[in-house]
UniProtKB/TrEMBL annotation:
<dbReference type="InterPro" id="IPR050086">
    <property type="entry name" value="MetN_ABC_transporter-like"/>
</dbReference>
<keyword id="KW-0547">Nucleotide-binding</keyword>
<protein>
    <submittedName>
        <fullName>Glutamine ABC transporter ATP-binding protein</fullName>
    </submittedName>
</protein>
<dbReference type="Pfam" id="PF00005">
    <property type="entry name" value="ABC_tran"/>
</dbReference>
<keyword id="KW-1003">Cell membrane</keyword>
<keyword id="KW-0067">ATP-binding</keyword>
<dbReference type="GO" id="GO:0015424">
    <property type="term" value="F:ABC-type amino acid transporter activity"/>
</dbReference>
<dbReference type="InterPro" id="IPR003593">
    <property type="entry name" value="AAA+_ATPase"/>
</dbReference>
<dbReference type="InterPro" id="IPR017871">
    <property type="entry name" value="ABC_transporter-like_CS"/>
</dbReference>
<dbReference type="GO" id="GO:0005524">
    <property type="term" value="F:ATP binding"/>
</dbReference>
<dbReference type="GO" id="GO:0005886">
    <property type="term" value="C:plasma membrane"/>
</dbReference>
<feature type="domain" description="ABC transporter">
    <location>
        <begin position="13"/>
        <end position="274"/>
    </location>
</feature>
<dbReference type="GO" id="GO:0016887">
    <property type="term" value="F:ATP hydrolysis activity"/>
</dbReference>
<dbReference type="InterPro" id="IPR003439">
    <property type="entry name" value="ABC_transporter-like_ATP-bd"/>
</dbReference>
<dbReference type="InterPro" id="IPR030679">
    <property type="entry name" value="ABC_ATPase_HisP-typ"/>
</dbReference>
<keyword id="KW-0472">Membrane</keyword>
<keyword id="KW-0813">Transport</keyword>
Length: 278
């Protein structure tokens, strides 16, 4: 495979014609989205434009009314796998998965989708009655049925990496927001997903805690993880994202290289939005 092919890579995520309504409120209206392997896409747009609903649809937390989601096989081009993707390069080689929401999607397909995409939530969503370590190994051990000793060893490594190994026996209430979100990120990584989804990962944090969390996410991007990030941090999006997708009213208004969309948007709605935030 040539370096160019490796850079563009096959799509890890392909979304086609995604529609979702809540009652009379058409929240997603024909969303298409492609994320090549190892690329980072930032989803930006005003509140209520449907960004979170897209992420939740990609993680089986929301059931779209129509459209399809395909998560490509990792390992199809094993030779070109970014060294860091998967943390230790041992992301399981799962076959590609295609969900067609025009037909009936089964719980088994939703479980398979969750096996491939892991979400980092705005409010961390850690289990309050579990320690940090228990939070991190819950998915690998109880959902993915991996051996506990292996899951603990990997959790230790990941926690160490984000500077939180000494907090492994702490409970979520004993953590700062920044620490809790780093645990949220570790918990997602521990699932060894093909795709990482971040939903406003820093918007609940005090300003002085934001940079630490963004630094971890940037590091993961540099390592070659494939990610979709919903964010209002446009400076961060400019540094980290390969592509920026601007949404409004349930449709994609504009998409392109981060520098183009953020510095030189073509559409007036994007211009207004970007001008307000940058
Ligand atoms: P964004 O992430 O861009 O702020 P969301 O995807 O959270 O937008 O929401 C898009 C729209 O969908 C909003 O009008 C919101 O009120 C509505 N919505 C989201 N989730 C639900 C739900 N579970 N039930 C009813 N309406 C919802």
């Amino acid at each position: 495979m040539s370096p160019t092919d490796a850079t563009v890579g096959p799509a890890v995520l392909q979304v086609r014609g995604l529609n979702k309504s809540f009652g009379a409120n058409a929240v997603l209206r024909g969303i298409d989205l492609d994320v090549p392997r190892g690329k980072v896409v930032a989803l930006i747009g005003p509140s209520g434009s449907g960004k979170t609903t897209i992420l939740r649809s990609l993680n089986g937390l929301e059931m779209p009314d129509a459209g399809s989601v395909t998560v490509g096989a990792r390992g199809a081009t094993a030779g070109s796998e970014p060294a860091g993707a998967g943390g230790s390069g041992v992301v399981p080689q799962l076959p590609a998965l295609s969900l067609d929401f025009d037909a009936k999607v089964t719980p088994k397909e939703i479980a398979a989708l969750r096996d491939r995409s892991a979400m980092v939530f705005q409010h961390y969503n850690l289990f309050p009655h579990m320690t940090v370590l228990q939070n991190v190994i819950e998915g690998p051990v109880h959902v993915q049925k991996r051996p506990r000793t292996e899951a603990v060893a990997e959790a230790d490594k990941l926690l160490d990496r984000v500077g939180l190994l000494e907090k492994k026996d702490a409970y979520p209430f004993e953590l700062s927001g920044g620490q809790a979100q780093r645990v949220g990120i570790v918990r997602a990584l521990a699932l060894k997903p093909q795709l990482l989804l971040f939903d406003e990962p820093t918007s609940a944090l005090d300003p002085e805690l934001v940079d630490d969390v963004l630094a971890v996410i940037k590091e993961l991007a540099d390592e070659g993880w494939t990610m979709v990030i919903v964010t209002h941090e446009l400076a961060f999006a400019r540094q980290t994202a390969d592509e920026v997708v601007f949404m409004d009213g349930g449709v994609v208004v504009e998409r392109g290289p981060a520098s183009q969309v953020l510095r030189n948007p073509r559409e007036e709605r994007t211009q207004q939005f970007v001008r307000r935030l940058l």
